[in-house]
Specification:
Radius of gyration: 14 Å
Number of strands: 8
Order of helices and strands: EHEEEHEHEEE
CATH architecture: Roll
CATH class: Alpha Beta
Length: about 130
């Protein structure tokens, strides 16, 4: 099995502060990690849930993929991040199984991780992020 666990569920939001407050008020959640990822044009807040995260994402510029997703579909579920031991091997395995990669090779992600994205068209409508810690 290449997938070791669910790393995060990413939710695209317009107002990160309001989303954080909602999760704090509704669930008692606290921010475990917060970061601006310039290469993806997002600011994220990670809320720890057991060994996984709820990742709240907001665009930092109008051309980012998250900004375009919110404009097209509104706020809500953006992608699922699956934790893997080796991102390059997982990416190659998914491509061999017919997945359409967005990233041709693994690249740096937030929290010092290595990541690669798989296009929803090749994975039954779900944007997938492979995450190696």
């Amino acid at each position: 099995m290449i997938l070791t666990e669910i790393d995060h569920v990413a939710i695209a939001v317009r107002d990160l502060e309001a989303a954080i407050k909602y999760y704090q008020d509704a669930f008692g959640a606290t921010v475990d990690h917060r970061e601006v990822v310039e290469s993806d044009g997002v600011e994220e807040a990670l809320l720890k849930v057991a060994e996984s995260y709820v990742q709240l994402l907001t665009p930092t510029n109008p051309d980012s993929p998250v900004a375009k997703a919110i404009e097209k579909r509104g706020e809500g579920l953006h992608h699922i991040g699956y934790r893997v031991n080796n991102c390059a091997e997982a990416l190659a395995s998914m491509i061999a199984a017919g997945a359409t990669p967005i990233d041709k090779a693994p690249r740096p992600g937030s929290r010092g991780t290595t990541v690669a994205f798989i296009h929803p068209k090749g994975s039954f409508g779900t944007l997938i992020e492979l995450v190696q810690e």
